Amino acid sequence: MKIEGVVSSELLINIFIPKIPLHDGACIIRGNRIAAAACFLPLSVSEVVQELGSRHKADVGITEYSDFKLKMKGLLNLMLLILKQ
């Protein structure tokens, strides 16, 4: 959900009050503004996090996703170096 509000502790506290529509999901912050809330990030499918809520699964999922992308970028760079030889 688009927010476009100035970041403040009051706004963040209100976004994450349990049982309101914005509570479950991530906030996207750009500079000093909250661009959006209730955003869903890639969820982990790891057995370790199955008992956790979606926000916690997303914490792990976004880390897994970004680690994967970094590994793929490193592999691509290595392949390019090999092809240049």
Which key features would you list for this structure?
85 residues; 20% strand; 2 domains; 3 strands; 3-stranded antiparallel β-sheet; alpha+beta
Helices and strands, with pairings:
Layout: E1 2-6, H1 9-15, E2 26-30, E3 33-39, H2 54-84
Kindly describe this structure:
With 85 residues, the protein is α+β, with helices and mostly antiparallel strands. It folds into two domains: 1-39, no CATH class; 42-85. The protein has two helices and three strands. The longest helix is centred in the last third of the chain and has 31 residues, at 54-84. The chain is elongated.
Brief rundown of the structure:
This protein has 85 residues and is an alpha+beta fold.
Radius of gyration: 18 Å
What order do the helices and strands follow? EHEEH
Number of strands: 3
Distance between the termini: 49 Å
Structural class: alpha+beta
Q: How many domain regions? A: 2
* Estimated helix fraction: 40-55%
> In DSSP terms, counting alpha (H) and pi (I) runs of 4 or more, how many helices?
2
| Mean pLDDT over the residues | 83
